[in-house]
Amino acid sequence: MGVVGRPAKLEHVPGVAKALLAPDLSEEAVGGKADVLIDTVGGGILRDALTLVRPRGRAALLGYTGGRELTLDLADFFLADVSLLPVNMISRGEEVAPEVLRLLPDLASGALSLPYERYGMDALGEAVERLRTGAAVGKIVLDMENTGD
User: CA triplet 58, 95, 90: central angle to 5 degrees?
Assistant: First the structure.
C-alpha cells in the first residue's frame, strides 16, 4: 500500500503497491487491519493511519513532512496496543552502513531508484516552495556548483 497526499503523486507509487490518496485511507480501502505501518509523513496522517494497524502491530515513523506534532487520545492508543517506533537513521550510521553498501550496486544499475529533484542555488526559492507545498517527489538536492551563471 502506498499512500500519497496529492493525485499527481499516485503515479510515483511503486507498481507492487496499491496506490491510495491519504483522504481515502480507510480499513475498507486497505483490506483490513495492517500488521505493519511505515510512515514517512507524520502529523495527522500518522494519527489516522495508526487506527488501521492491528492490535500488537507495529508502526515505524521515518519522517514528519506532514507535521512535527502528533496528538493521540491516550486511552484509545493504549487499547489499540500498537507499538510506535521512531527510526532515527542519523544516530545509526555505523549500524546501517553495511546495508547501504550492499544496496549501492542496485542503485548504480538502476534496479533500485531513489526519486529526487535537483536545483541550482539560483532556484533555491523554487526548491523550498516545492518542499513547503508538498509538490516535490522524493528528495530535493541542491547543486552548490550550479548557480545558473
Answer: 75
